[in-house]
Amino acid sequence: MGLFSVEKRIAQLAVQRASRLTAAVAARNSLSSITKSDDSPVTVADFGAQAIIISAIRHAFPKDEVVGEEDGAKLRADAGLRENVWKLVQDASNDSFASEIGQLKSADEMIDAIDHGNSEGGNSGRIWALDPIDGTKGFLRRGQYAVCLALMVDGKVQVGVIGCPNLPLQVGQSSAPAAGEVAGESGSEGNGALFTAVRGEGAFVSPLFSAATESNTKQIHFNAITSTANATFCESVESGHSAHDTQAAIASALGITKPPVRMDSQAKYCSIARGDGDIYLRLPVSSTYQEKIWDHAAGNVLVHEAGGRVTDMFGKELDFGVGRTLRDNKGVIAASAAIHSDVLKAVHQVVNSSN
Ligand SMILES: Nc1ncnc2c1ncn2[C@@H]1O[C@H](COP(=O)(O)OS(=O)(=O)O)[C@@H](OP(=O)(O)O)[C@H]1O
Ligand SMILES: [Mg+2]
Ligand SMILES: [Mg+2]
Ligand SMILES: [Mg+2]
To answer: Which residues are recorded as binding Mg(2+) (predicted)?
Structure first.
């Protein structure tokens, strides 16, 4: 058995159970959201998925800390909201994995679990980074979103698991979006993919909604690309999350002629890691925004294990051990290791010429 095999198993089961919850919500005719203090949306599915995953971690590893995106304050203040989420959690937890990942017993326990995601992070000990729904806006528009969980040990990501309910299991299995189209916007693509990586052991994909077995688990790799001109790059859907204009200039400096594939969430890391794209650019729009560790931790180890490299826009490794945010980094550049330095060069060219 490899290093972190128990952590990997627990993380997979937790992400699968949480993804069942998010998919059950997504199956409804209409989706609604609440607006958080930073103006971003959150839904019953974000709260429910965070509760399920943190309770699984506490069941298996009671001493571990968790940096989770959400907190329970809104549920404490609103009994109706709390009951809605509790019903979803109970339904999704009706599986045969209680001996491994436990089962929440009450709505109060559920809120406690959500609030346990309050770790300040840091570079010592075992800390999980959790984004219960990454790309909530994508979830709401029925595009791509991802349930993301990573284990950091002493500030370094060792395990990453990402559930993508709206991504096809195999590249080219369903009609992939044409270049320039928003991926997964139809919501009808595929039937879910579970991406898993343990440092030093490779990156893998398996079906999200059935048990991972040796026969349905496939190792994934970046495309063997040597010239950036043929590359496909992906970026956020929201122009407020990354600088689309700067990214277009970088792409053109690389000789890329294909329009970008726009996709919400860490599904971008997953797509490039399995060769369904080559480069993920995330140049900052604002000089004050600090990227959150839960938006990048799982994707970071996945890309590394698939033969890729992730740095910030200055070529620095992302430092996950400085707190809840990546405050020592600016921007994110992810690409196959073979072309990463070319991409970085183009970033410098474009950024320096615009200053
Ligand atoms: N200003 C700004 N700059 C950069 N990033 C920001 C910003 N504001 C929010 N966020 C975070 O973006 C997360 C979603 O990223 P995506 O790449 O999926 O964005 S997009 O929705 O496709 O545009 C999103 O994650 P979720 O909240 O989990 O959806 C946010 O953490
Ligand atoms: Mg996120
Ligand atoms: Mg989120
Ligand atoms: Mg959010």
So the answer is: 69, 131, 133-134, 295
Q: How many angstroms does the Cα of residue 42 sit away from the middle of ligand 4?
A: 6
ipTM exceeding the 0.90 mark: yes
pLDDT for the residue 175: 43
Whether residues 166 and 269 share a domain: the answer is no
* Alpha-carbon gap, residue 90 to 11, rounded angstroms: 19
The count of domains in the chain is: 2
- Closest ligand to the CA of 35: 4
Q: Considering every ligand atom, which ligand is closest to the CA of 33?
A: 4
Distance CA 98, CA 104 (A): 9
Please confirm, yes or no, whether 136 is among the known catalytic residues. yes
Share of the chain above pLDDT 90, in %: 92
- 38: annotated active-site residue: no
* Distance between Cα 297 and ligand 2 center (Å): 10
The pLDDT of residue 186: 41
Q: Do residue 270 and residue 305 come from a single domain?
A: yes
Nearest protein Cα to ligand 1, atom 19:
236
| Burial 159-174, CB ≥16 within 10 A → b, else e | bbbbbbbbbbbebeeb
CATH of the domain at 147: 3.30.540.10
Secondary structure of residue 15 in the 3-state scheme:
helix
Q: How confident is the model at residue 354 (pLDDT cuts 50, 70, 90)?
A: confident
Query: What is the domain extent for residue 300?
Result: 228-353
Q: Whose CA is nearest to atom 6 of ligand 1?
A: 241
Same domain, residue pair 25 and 96: yes
